[in-house]
Write a structure and sequence with these properties.
The protein is mainly alpha-helical. The chain has 2 helices and 2 strands, in the order αββα. The relative contact order is 0.11.
Length: 56
């Protein structure tokens, strides 16, 4: 567990009993990928920025 970048912030007891707090490990939730009809990954961050620019 000490080599894992996320789990190294926790004790074995915390992991065994499900006492994992994401804020303690300074982790972030993964963002699910969105795909277009050609199976290309759509970058949601750039997509949202472009939408905001178009609305202005």
């Amino acid at each position: 567990m000490k080599k894992d970048t996320f789990l190294k912030h926790y004790t074995v007891k915390e992991v065994q009993f499900g006492l994992i707090d994401q804020k303690k490990a300074a982790g972030v939730q993964p963002v699910p990928k969105t795909y277009d009809a050609q199976a290309n990954v759509i970058d949601r961050a750039n997509d949202q920025q472009q939408t905001r620019k178009m609305k202005q």
